[in-house]
Design brief:
homodimer; 384 residues; Rossmann fold; 2 domains; two-stranded antiparallel ribbon; 9 strands; 47% helix; 11% strand; globular
Chain lengths: 384, 384
């Protein structure tokens, strides 16, 4: 096990009806900016519940933070936030709204150009407190201090972190997910699944408990996925387990003392930047291909994962590894998500552009496993 | 799954050599009181490492917090703390030192009689910040806001909690456990094991992920116990997993949305109060007996636990349940701990005294399972 530091001060408020606790959780004397996405909260009842709680508070609203939140949109919120002297941010929506709000929280108190903070996260020395009402289980943003911000102009995605960007609290009511389209649920499951394997499918370091906990998330996703995708009407317990898995997959709880990878996310982010494909879809495309290309390097963990999550215990190591990769891919397919670039009619030239970007930036992904641009080229070729 | 709130702001600093980070973690301008147990830190190298880090800080030391920390000892520390205007507490030692220090932290700023706080925890409205260098993995006190305080005079043990009693940080270096006697390691494993089952072995509420995580701790304890107990020289990885399990078993991470029991601990605390038996020993005595007496009520979870932790899958439910209980008891025995009251030559009259106490206080333990004094009598009789 590696040495590690762990810290996560976010308060989770979880369960049916828990938006009713918002009033007690918000600071009484704050100037609040409530941030939203495109408006789905107006059709699923969340907006009414939130507004009911906000009675008597001093707040303004900012609408329109899009999926893969854009710098170009966020600077508008930042400008308003500075002008209105906002002191507290409440993100209502999915991971993109929350990611965008984390950036707003750092940029409002920053005196220089907001873009500086993206280029150099360490310049974000102060943040405005933020919190969330989370309605789309996927990114884990409700209980971590990270965000991903896109820039339209340059087709780039950037990671954004500060030590104080943890939400002060996050309200998670599984019933708010009932109105999500199946495609978004599927993408959320895949995002949660891949967050987990990025912290698990590397190489063994005798971190037994963390391995069991990562496998616990993967097993739960496997066990609930049929009900989750086939339900005529949503089942509360299934939604609860899904929502809890999404939060626990990226809040540091399974990251203690283990090596991490994040290659699938890095390649996936580039795919989204160049093609506009939904984040979860890009992960479903990249991950099986990455496992095939990296089979030798990841063999020990592949066999362990195959046995413990998919009960694959018969055959030579080579056979078991292959079966495990196939099982993973067919799991993504069973959620209704195709796993090859060609399924989405992506132009082959996109591969060259992405490889070029990895080459330019001299990226090496995956600790000890040196996933450089040559390997990225192989992965994308395999994924086509 | 039940509705829940989760909050845990303790920073964990984990791994070999991490006491060297103490200096950066301590507040520069504090008046620090460092609290210790009986002196074992002077023989295992921890004291030198801590003192080295404290150079340049304004600190005093308080020695002698005993196992099952006594109110009578703690009031001495409180008196000194008030007089010296202490503003920060650093507990160096095991769970008892830390538990005692949590009480000191609440009592120093309290103007009335310290005993008031034990009788009514809600009177502890203010606490002095505290932190720990934890050397004995067992109680989980390093990452929660609870403590157990004993009073010699009345042979009683009391739970003590406040919302702000979380350590600000806890340093966990698995090497500090190398000098622990095998008996203490065994008791720590049992304490960790029973903390876990108190949050797991109740009744099913479709909390799949929490079940997997609880089973993950139990599986890990099972997998490391042979090496842990038989090692000629301590193995770092085994100690790391042991230490991490102990912390994760009682920091709320496996408690999200699940019913809890705590009957074994409540009965065990009374046993310690009347007989002086070590906490871990009392749990090893009570738990198998409790499972036998409560077999019907806990049947669903017993079968699940038997299958997932001990691979007991053959036979009738009755047979599997019995086998699971036997396997649990023999696990405790394999650590070198006997599991019957008679093994410790405890007088049978102690049972009556404990039952009387449960009767007087009208205690009912275990949600939905109503473990009242009649049941406690059966359990202790079974445990004899």
């Amino acid at each position: 096990m590696y040495n590690f530091e762990f810290y996560n001060p976010t308060k989770l408020v979880f369960g049916k009806g828990s938006i009713a606790k918002l009033k007690e959780l918000l600071p009484a004397d704050a100037k609040i900016m409530v941030t939203y996405g495109g408006g789905s909260v107006k059709t699923n009842g969340v907006y009414e519940q939130v507004i009911e709680q906000l009675k008597g508070f001093d707040y303004i609203e900012f609408w329109g933070i899009e999926p893969n939140p854009k710098y170009e949109t966020l600077i508008k919120a930042i400008e308003i936030g500075k002008k209105e002297k906002v002191t507290f941010l409440l993100a209502v929506g999915g991971g993109s709204v929350l990611d965008g709000t984390k950036f707003i929280s750092a940029a409002i108190p920053y005196e220089g150009e907001s873009w500086d903070l993206i280029k150099d996260n360490s310049k974000a020395v102060s943040t405005i407190p933020l919190a969330s009402v989370m309605t789309l289980p996927a990114t884990g943003s409700e209980m971590n201090n990270g965000a991903v911000i896109s820039r339209l102009e340059t087709e780039e995605k950037f990671a954004f972190f500060t030590p104080t960007s943890f939400p002060q609290f996050s309200i998670l009511d599984p019933e708010t997910t009932y109105s999500l389209p199946a495609f978004q649920v599927a993408c959320g499951v895949i995002d949660t699944f891949v967050h987990t394997v990025e912290q698990y499918m590397t190489f063994p370091v005798e971190a037994l408990l963390m391995d069991r906990w990562a496998e616990g998330i993967l097993q739960t996703l496997k066990d609930i996925s049929d009900t989750l995708m086939k339900e005529d009407k949503p089942d509360y317990e299934t939604r609860s387990n899904y929502m809890l898995c999404a939060t626990m997959a990226l809040n540091g709880f399974i990251a203690m003392g283990v090596p991490q990878d994040w290659a699938t996310h890095m390649i996936g982010h580039e795919l989204t930047a160049f093609t506009g494909l939904t984040h979860g879809v890009t992960l479903a495309i990249v991950y099986p291909a990455l496992l095939r290309v990296m089979k030798e390097e990841k063999m020990d963990k592949l066999l362990q994962y195959g046995a413990r999550v998919w009960q694959i215990t018969i055959g030579t190591p080579e056979e078991r590894a292959e079966q495990t990769i196939m099982r993973t891919e067919s799991f993504f397919n069973s959620l209704g998500i195709a796993t090859h670039l060609s399924d989405y009619h992506v132009d082959r030239t996109v591969i060259d552009k992405i490889v070029e970007r990895f080459k330019e930036r001299k990226w090496k992904l995956g600790e000890k496993q040196n996933i450089d641009y040559h390997v990225v080229a192989k992965i994308l070729d395999m994924a086509y």
